[in-house]
Amino acid sequence: MAPALIVCIGNELAADDGAGQAVYLALKETRLPEGTRLEFLGVGGMNLLETFSGEDHLVVVDAVQFGAAPGTVHTLDWDRIPSLGQRPVSGHGIGIREAIEVGRRLYPEKTPKHVHLIGIEGKCFNTLGAGLSAEVAGALDAAVKQITDLLGGLQPA
Fold first, then answer.
1. Residue 80 has what pLDDT?
2. In sequence order, which residues have a C-beta less than 8 Å from that of residue 134 and are 6 or more positions away?
3. How many C-beta atoms surround the C-beta of residue 149 within 10 A?
4. N or C: which end of the chain has fewer CB within 10 A?
5. Cα distances (angstroms) measured from residue 49 to each of 43, 73, 97, 103
6. Could you give all domains of the chain from N- to C-terminal order, each with its CATH number?
């Protein structure tokens, strides 16, 4: 398998925004394919660029608001990740797509060529200290499975 980077984004203090951290903790206990690096960011956006070190594949895990039922796990490839002008993927400032595009211009040798988003549809993002909603907590295993299935199917670039 080609080198891959998983970046989980989120803030456990802001209800369902903690989905990324919960997936990160689950993935730490999961056997990932050789060559896979796992990182956690409390805030995404341009901070994402600091995690790149030349991997071929990037999987970003974050809570999203696409209008689906809470707990829905979305698996989107690069072409389907919305830009900030369509619908923000992240409440962490600049969107994932925009950050990657900046990285491709500034650090083309470090920025992954292949990008996927595993987005967990959230329900509540504005209640501090509330923890994950039942729907999001119930989707964590499905998100981890989506990630491991995705990584298992990746081919060298």
1. 92
2. none
3. 10
4. C
5. 12, 24, 12, 6
6. 4-152 (3.40.50.1450)
